[in-house]
Structures are given as structure tokens and as C-alpha cells.
Design a protein that fits this description.
8 strands, 8-stranded antiparallel barrel, alpha+beta, 2 helices
Length: 139
Amino acid sequence: MPVQLIPGVPDSYTVLYEYDPDKNIYFLKEQPLGFNRLPMKFRVEKTAHKERINADLIIRGHDGRWNDIILTGLKPITKGLYYGDHFLKGKKNYLIFSFSPDQVHATVIYHKSFFPAIKSVRDDINSRYMGYHTKKWPG
């Protein structure tokens, strides 16, 4: 069941990942019951197609093979906080990635069937998540 994390922002699903430094992969730790829109594991990579993706980093999901899924480009909001989009079944979904300062934990906030197309609206939502990120990972 989606929840409203930030006042004035549509409901979302929160998915938690944990980093394994030996494998350089984030593994799924916790997700809402019945929610299966994100991969079981992912890694962060530099993009080879910056002009097309418009981001320096991408999230590559694993669904059998690493080259199967590019989940999204990571566009920075502030240190450790990024946004991106995920196309699924013809719908664009808004994603927020919040990484802990030590990069061991990643929280993915998934807004199903919602993507703010207007930049000023996106900027407003991103600024609201800056407060969430700061409270979640103080210091």
C-alpha cells in the first residue's frame, strides 16, 4: 500500500537496499508486500550515453543479466540524493534515490504512475525530499 511520505507529494512506495562492497552491488533488503516493480539488486555505473540519458550516473538493475535493465539515470538533487524516472507499461514513474553518507544503505521512493513534467514542480518536490534526506541521514 503506498503512503504519503512528504505533505503535498503523491503517495509512494519505499524500497530499501543494502550495499555489498565485495560485489559492488546493492541488494534488496525490504519492500512493501506485493510491490515488485524494482529489481532484486542494482549497481550504480557511469553512463556511456550522457547526451541521451542526461545524467552522469545510471542505475543498472539485474534481472538475469546485467545488460537487461537500465532502471534510470541519476540526476543530483544534493549530496547523496538523486531523482530519476522509470518507464513501465507505458507509464513514467518518479523515483527518488537517497543514499546514506557511507553509501551502504539506499532508499528508493517510487511514485507509481506519477512524474512531474514541469521543472518548477519537480524542483519543488525535490526540495521537499532534501528535508526528508537530511532527517533520514543526519550528519
